[in-house]
Task: structure prediction
Amino acid sequence: MRARGGRVTTARRSLLEALFASSGHCTAEDLAAIVQAKMPDVHISTIYRNLDELERLGVLVHTHLGHGPASYHLASSPHGHLVCERCGETVEAPAEMFAGLARSARKRFGFRIDPRHFAVLGACAACVAAEPAPVSFAGRRKFTQRGPGGSLGDR
Amino acid sequence: MRARGGRVTTARRSLLEALFASSGHCTAEDLAAIVQAKMPDVHISTIYRNLDELERLGVLVHTHLGHGPASYHLASSPHGHLVCERCGETVEAPAEMFAGLARSARKRFGFRIDPRHFAVLGACAACVAAEPAPVSFAGRRKFTQRGPGGSLGDR
DNA sequence: GTAAGTGCAAATGATTTGCAGATGT
DNA sequence: ACATCTGCAAATCATTTGCACTTAC
Result:
């Protein structure tokens, strides 16, 4: 099924391997790091170009999990994301959780939602518990995904 | 109620006026344009700093309606957004549309969602109707919000 | 052989930051 | 007076693009 419509280059093959290896939620830079471990000359712009291409082919999708870079993962098993605004914790939300929203969006506005492209932000269980007082949603402050380790085994 | 904790400067007052005048969904640059119409020397960085400040005070919130710049609006009347990936059409989604999602997120993950911060993308009624064949969600391509007119009266 | 793909450097767009000078209280 | 704000220029971060050169087919 590889690269229908284009050429099979080493950079492309390597990018796909990186995607399969690190199942889910890598930034372009994460993937670049993995690919460059074997092929140091593969440039980040090539990564971006191929991610674009693979997305156009429907092989993968990108998602915005918050401020900061986009995350890429294979298109199989469609799911949305819940991301904690405090700690960056990300949980995959199965498509059926969006069924109610999808239905009312369609009914009221004729709108068909795609719950995959942008994450739903909020507060994870741990952060809700650790909260001082229920002051609505004031004190938000920018957070960064991607733990101290940088790429890959992130969290 | 103005600027509790800080000073009342002309730039700040003017920014608030711009926000009240153009009810809802302005980018920082839109707001800068409005402010600069009267005070040409107010710099965009000042706009950003004050938007940050006002958000910290809970006066306004920012939302990401897609790729591209963030939108700011007054914190009153909490609502989410549905944004068409094809044409950029934006509709305000009343909070209760997210009730089902909020409930299942809490039940399954202890997660408390904030439907305001990121928009839910998808396809608006017009674009769904104009669609050739139901090819799932392949052919996405980047879109730009902000119609030809630029700031303000945008749609 | 030739068009598609690549590496690199430079451009882009949105936002942030350092700093010296201006201004609200 | 003096800390807070502001204007400006430069920095940053994620991503894109132009171009000359390689490479898969």
